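Students often ask why we bother predicting the structure of a whole assembly rather than each chain alone. The short answer is interfaces. A chain on its own may look different once its partners are present, and contacts between molecules only exist in the joint model. In this exercise we take four input lines together and write out one structure for the complete complex. Read the inputs first and try to guess which parts will touch.
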Amino acid sequence: MTPTSVSDASDMLRAVGLSVTAQRLAVYRAVVHLHHATADQICEQVRHEIGAVSRQAVYDALQTMRVHRIVRRFEPAGSSARYETRVDNHHHLICRQCGSMCDVDCAKGTAPCLHPVDDHGYFIDEAEVIYWGTCPDCTPN
Amino acid sequence: MTPTSVSDASDMLRAVGLSVTAQRLAVYRAVVHLHHATADQICEQVRHEIGAVSRQAVYDALQTMRVHRIVRRFEPAGSSARYETRVDNHHHLICRQCGSMCDVDCAKGTAPCLHPVDDHGYFIDEAEVIYWGTCPDCTPN
DNA sequence: TCAATATATTGACAGAGTCCAGATTAGTCG
DNA sequence: CGACTAATCTGGACTCTGTCAATATATTGA
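Now the answer. The structure tokens for the assembled complex follow.
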């Protein structure tokens, strides 16, 4: 994997019209670096990188990037929110034992799997899928 | 829909080997009555019915019933946990505007849709699906 | 560089859920 | 029926995520 340079991250921010601050750069890079990280983990990582940030700045940055679609958030049951930089339609695979997570491509290819058996008249714009199970490391024998 | 009598609920509890208490009865009936209710809503409903309960008793009862598979819990992003008495494999449809929720049968019929494009070696036991969209009442025109 | 605007910091606060220790109650056995 | 023992319930403190609001600071563009 290509290491994310500062300029990659700032290009990303500029590309969507956001001003570039040290905090946002570090937050974006943390999200790239730590896959499926929680806000807390991102906070820690950012502090490693730039010394200090407020929790609020991290939440703000994540929220802003989310609105600009360069960061995505999901909330697995029993966990706090997770952030990722892969923003296309995809799903997640989570181990009930150790909590490890993998990305999975959308089950129906590029078209999102937006068609339930009965849509009850709803206009559906997203199908969020989480596959729960046991990862290879946690499977006995 | 058949109204849930006290004996329905106590039969349910006994059927899975749980002792029958006023609190559990009321909690179970509340979950039946209020579809997709939060713990807090259940608490209120139970208080209406039997006068008083501790929050803890409600959480304990829900947890116990969950373990015994007569109550199911799910946690839509941005909401606290929801409880329901329908325990077979099914999914949910949620309105982003008003938060209304519907049950949807499993997309693949009785067999759960347990097959992602790539399972990364995980043993999958559940596919949790939430369809996000706009309900008829919230759709303009 | 400077001003206007957007961000960041700080500290208080809220909601959901859990932990713990002691009191109470249900189910069981003699 | 009465007492025993395990299961439940109560109340209160506490943790963890996340948000709000006011003030201070940095970024951007002229």
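Check your guess against this: Helices of chain B lie at 6-15, 22-33, 39-50, 55-67.
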